Recover the amino acids of this structure.
DNA sequence: AAAAACTCTTGACATTTATCAAGACAAATA
DNA sequence: TATTTGTCTTGATAAATGTCAAGAGTTTTT
């Protein structure tokens, strides 16, 4: 039931069988069908969520009704709204399944408990946070430095597996381009 | 000598006098004159750096010689190249003082020592990392969603103190706009 | 199987933003 | 003080990207 998470943890750091039991104790599985929402703008996000199967998008809708995707999360990635999680404020993002998806939810309090009882887990998650931050800095750099074409090629490099799973207009939204511009960038060469 | 850092730490979490001594032990003060570099692309960054006075910019230069500023850091903020720090790889960023600046450097090994000996410090820095990540997500959102004008107004909101300290063309670089466009955005209205 | 919804492309055109060049100040330096 | 350097603005023009509209395939739903 939580096998994918266990395998993930074992691959990332040393964890004992007892510790695995502690983790399992606080996990809850949630199944989402394609197009179902994991989080809706306005709700408070109180979990850490591990995608064990499938794919979700995190996005916002502006006043003009335009969607802006700030993240895709597929198997073996974490998702959620950090702002809402940290400050207990209403989420500004929506999270929606792009495929049938399985998510393992760990409530905030339990998650903090894991940090205390499993130091290796805490260390790893902090390192992961660092890496995630570095990735987001790279994305900022791409955003302010690259042309439409360069942004797309950068996306191919950094998210090679997503290109065939995500509709093109969503990649455009993720990159801050119109779908038409992305289409033209792709066909031309 | 390290007063500003001490005051900062005391304002952020509970820290004992003994712990402050431990911190002082590993601090090194570095003074930079305006236009001096704290880090040059290609060097490995091995510190955590606290700005106790002044202002620096973190930027990259592309093949066309164009500079792209990904961060400003002023008093009571940390700076450095996380990628280089975490992976011991050559830095891809330059860090340059925009004013006469004082930086407190703590070498990587010592910094990890502080994490072990001062749990409150570790907890706080992890929380700070979370907040920094949230800020960078907000910036990504602005980058893919906003027009030039909206980007500038967002900058005014998120960095109100910098507008009068940083040359306008550097704000443009930070926002991914040409200096001329930013100038026009500002005068119009 | 038919209908509906979604996805991508393409063309014509509009808008935004960048580029190039010049000039006016202001600040830093000799 | 004179000179140089840096900063910002403005205009003319070019280039990049967005918008609107249509159509052709796909996939999903009924």
């Amino acid at each position: 039931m939580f096998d994918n998470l266990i395998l993930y943890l074992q691959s990332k750091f040393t964890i004992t069988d007892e510790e695995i039991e502690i983790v399992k104790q606080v996990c809850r599985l949630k199944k989402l069908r394609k197009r179902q929402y994991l989080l809706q703008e306005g709700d408070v996000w109180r979990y850490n969520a591990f995608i064990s199967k499938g794919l979700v998008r995190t996005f916002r809708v502006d006043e003009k009704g335009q969607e802006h995707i700030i993240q895709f999360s597929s198997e073996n990635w974490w998702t959620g709204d950090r702002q809402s999680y940290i400050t207990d404020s209403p989420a500004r993002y929506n999270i929606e399944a792009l495929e049938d998806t399985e998510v393992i939810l760990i409530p905030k309090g339990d998650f903090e408990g894991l940090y205390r009882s499993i130091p290796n887990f805490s260390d790893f998650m902090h390192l992961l946070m660092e890496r995630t931050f570095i990735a987001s800095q790279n994305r900022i750099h791409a955003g302010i430095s690259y042309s439409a074409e360069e942004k797309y090629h950068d996306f191919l490099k950094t998210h090679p597996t997503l290109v065939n799973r995500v509709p093109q207009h969503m990649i455009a939204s993720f990159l801050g381009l119109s779908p038409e511009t992305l289409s033209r960038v792709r066909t031309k060469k």
In short: Residues 3-117 of chain B form a domain with the Jelly Rolls fold (CATH 2.60.120.10). Chain B is about 50% helix and 25% strand. The interface with chain A takes residues 60, 62, 66, 68, 70, 82-83, 86, 126-127, 129-134, 136-137, 139-141, 143-145, 173-176 of chain B (CB under 8 Å). The longest helix of chain B spans residues 119-145.
